[in-house]
Amino acid sequence: KGQARIRTQVSAAHELHHLDLGIEGIGVNLLFGRTEAELVIPEGVTARTNGANVRVAATQTGTINTLGVALGGAGTVGGAGSILVNVFDRTILARVVGADTNGTGGVVGATLLTDGGDLTVDVTQNGTIEALAGVVAVGGVAGVGGAFGVSVLSDTAEASVEDVLVNTALDVPTNPARPLVGAGNVEVLATGEIELTSKVAAAAGGGKGAFGGSVAINVAEGSVTTAVRRSTIYTNGLRVDAFVDNTLNANAGALAVGGIAGVGMGITTNVSRMTVLADVDGPTVRAQGNVIVE
Questions:
Q1: Residues 6 or more apart whose Cβ sits within 8 Å of residue 182
Q2: What pLDDT is stored for residue 207 in this prediction?
Q3: Do residues 172 and 106 touch, judged by C-beta distance below 8 A?
Q4: How far apart are CA 158 and CA 121, in angstroms?
Q5: Kind of pairing between the strands at 165-167 and 232-235
């Protein structure tokens, strides 16, 4: 289980009689991490649970809360800027895998017997980024204020069963003609839940001219994968499920007031390009009930 939290606050304020220009508040948050849970069965080895359930699970949670504020004032020209950059780049894996201990390039005889118990391989990855940037710039002649916030999430999550024989049937079937009656279930599950929220605002005022601009950008990419690869599965039911829930919120506001001219501009962009894959690749599957791949 992995959990990380980052909280930052940056602020700056300047007041000059003639000129005040420059970027006042900069915040950069980078969160990297790797979480793994593995059940490794060497080739030629049989692992038996005698009816107990097997669960291989990994959870990863990350939170970034960041605030940037900048104030600038001058008798002639006042300028202020705030920049916030937040990045997630994490990996989470859970798997049951056969190991090539002989170095032949293939795995033979790696076996898991549950005698009616269930097998669950599960990953859950959560991420939250909240960013708030604000700017106020005032000048006797001109005021220029800009706020910029960008949040990028590039995560990888995978749950898999690979290169192994899994048999959840009872050691002594109650119905020899239907040996999978009473067998356990096999589930391979991966869930990604992401929330990105960016709020930026800029205000500028000047005796003659003013410009206030704000930009908020959220990008969610990466992959969530569930897979059964090169394995043999005997089970009551098989479920291979990959699920992603992305929420992207971007808000940008700008206010500019000038005696002659005032220009305000707010731009927001949300981009989601996640790869979600539930894959059953080259296995042998025998099931008493449903086989669900979604």
A1: 116, 169, 170, 173, 174, 236
A2: 77
A3: no
A4: 10
A5: parallel
Torsion of CA 120, 283, 162, 104, to 10 degrees: 160
Q: What digits encode the pLDDT tens for the residues 167-213?
A: 999 988 888 889 899 999 999 999 999 898 888 888 878 777 777 78
Burial class (CB in 10 A: 0-12, 13-18, 19+), 5: exposed
How would DSSP label each residue in the chain? -EEEEEEEEEEEEEEESSEE-S--EEEEEEEEEEEEEEEEEETT-EEE-TT--EEEEEEEEEEEEEEEEEEEEESSEEEEEEEEEEEEEEEEEEEEEEE-TT-SSS----EEE-TT--EEEEEEEEEEEEEEEEEEEEESSEEEEEEEEEEEEEEEEEEEEES-EEE-S-SS-SSTTSTTTT---EEEEEEEEEEEEEEEEEEEEESSEEEEEEEEEEEEEEEEEEEEES-EEEES-EEEEEEEEEEEEEEEEEEEEESSEEEEEEEEEEEEEEEEEEEEES-EEEESS-EEE-
For the entire predicted model, the pTM comes to: 0.84
